[in-house]
Amino acid sequence: MAEPGGIDEPSVSADAGVRKDPAAGEGRDARFLLALVRPYRLALLAMVALMCTQSLVALATPWLAGRFSAALLGDRPVTSLLLIWLVVIAMQACLGYVVAVRSQSVASHLVADASTRVFDHLQSLPLQWHEQRRRGEVLVLLTEDVYRLGYFVTGTVTPLMPLLLTCVGAFVLMVRVDLAIGLAVSALMPVFYIALRWTGRRLRPLARLEIEAEARKSALAEQNLAMLPIVKAFSGERAESRRYAAQSEALRRIELSQVRLQNAIGPIARILVSAFVLALLWISSQSVARGTMTAADLVTILMYGLLLAQPISQLAGVYGQVQTARATARRLMDVFAHAPEPDDGTRELRDVRGEVSLEDLHFSHAGRPPVFRGLNLLVRAGETLAITGANGAGKSTLAHLLLRLVDPQGGRISLDGVDLKELTLRNLRSHVGLVSQQVLLFNASVRDNIRYGDVDASDADIERAAGAALADGFIRGLPDGYDTIVGDQGIRLSGGQRQRIALARALLKDPAVLILDEATAMFDPDAESMFIEQCRSVLHKRTVILITHRPTTLALADRILQLEDGQLSPARHQPVASPREIASAADLREELT
């Protein structure tokens, strides 16, 4: 089997999913599927070869049935024929087992590999792309869509050649028995093709609607579970249940319409083919009565007719599955059509002092008024700068710009005089740490959450960082200490505890530039003062950007700037701090100088 190597990135245009030319759309679908299966082409070819062998063995059964009938009617020994027949049956059974196991093996590898590649691409996309989509719909891409497409390749596309081989083989062997009957069977093909085209036109939109409805249902469930505390607080369970039930009902109706239409193809095809075969059997029986055909040939014709009916009905079902797969492929193609966040920098800084410069910066979110218009700022290395401003003024946007989570439309941002765009994203983000007010934690242990700042850190390093963030005390009081699982988004911890763990994670990273975006918002005043005392050694000789309104934290800053109307200016009103806060800040300044 081919080693899991990942699907090649499909080369698609930005307007993927919007078809202007049906033929071009089908071509893109085919290229996407080829990119998906390319790493497994040898394994898939081996499967096709096994399936074709299975089909060839199956074609021997009608011939043996005819020979067996002839032997019986001629009063000849049938033992050898029965032994051969037993061998053929055993070969079919063994081949069927091998094909089933190999098919599952290749499918599972293909699905896992494709899912990982989609996951990697989703991670590489800019934050704006994710902000414009519901998380549940994105998760469906990784689960249902990839699974459906992977098993379409192994369960539908791969068996096509063996099915066609069975059809052609049965037809050719029928012609060898009786030319007129074989030609009559071929007259059925145009009728069958017309029926498929008629059904396909109705299946295609249903397949797209089903996938979209399934994504909406998953998105609704994911959102509900994430907002469950709010749902319960506002007694919204019944309303949410009605919404989910309505979405489930919409999906059920679409699925039922699709199933009715898709599953009607197989029985109709089987009835048509079987009726035709029975008609041919009646004609053949007349030939037998006239002596122009032997009884053994009659049995052979009947068996080949029945053998032909099965793959034709299966081929009819394939057409419906193709429509669903095309709709799925379009959704995945649309994801790959979006370029990852730009990472074209080549430089890597080693010894970073931490000087940050913003020159003539212009930035606006899509479809919204500009946030910055020619913003200029110089943060000296080792300086502690505090930025205040009204909500929505763009304070957090500055942090995102420094990490290149978003890029400005104009101007330049530099670190130690080097344009951020010249640096690799990994190198840049290794030098800039962020602790935001919205704390994000993994459903893992406290230790693993802190270690995310430095995967090579020792337990002693983790505990020192936790101590600096005033987290060591409460962590040791947890049921399993540092090995306590915090739950999704740290739900098993209080807001202040989550914030301190996030702070410890950033301190463990030891960045040259540390951005604290309301990082002590959930601390009480005494805890915040203690934190500042504890962080003296951590903040010393480090560039710190404080985004805060809290007097204790503002008193720590060398400068305080106010962000208003897209510009920075000295704060008009200095923070009013308590005597204890002023004394604490004064002691800190004396130590730092």
Give an account of the 3D structure.
- The strands form two sheets. The chain has a six-stranded mixed sheet, sandwiched between helices. A four-stranded antiparallel sheet has the order 2-1-4-5, with no helix packed on it.
- The protein has helices spanning 22-37, 41-73, 79-124, 127-131, 135-157, 160-177, 179-186, 188-226, 228-233, 237-290, 295-336, 395-402, 425-431, 446-451, 459-468, 472-476, 495-509, 525-534, 536-539, 551-554, 579-592; strands spanning 356-364, 370-379, 384-389, 410-415, 418-419, 432-435, 513-517, 543-547, 559-564, 567-570.
- With 593 residues, the chain is an alpha/beta fold.
- It is elongated and about 110 Å long.
- The protein starts with 21 loop residues before the first helix and ends with a helix.
- It has two domains: 22-336, ABC transporter type 1, transmembrane domain (ABC transporter transmembrane region fold), CATH 1.20.1560; 356-592, P-loop containing nucleotide triphosphate hydrolases (Rossmann fold, 3-Layer(aba) Sandwich), CATH 3.40.50.
- The longest helix has 54 residues, at 237-290.
- Helix 2 (41-73) packs antiparallel against helix 11.
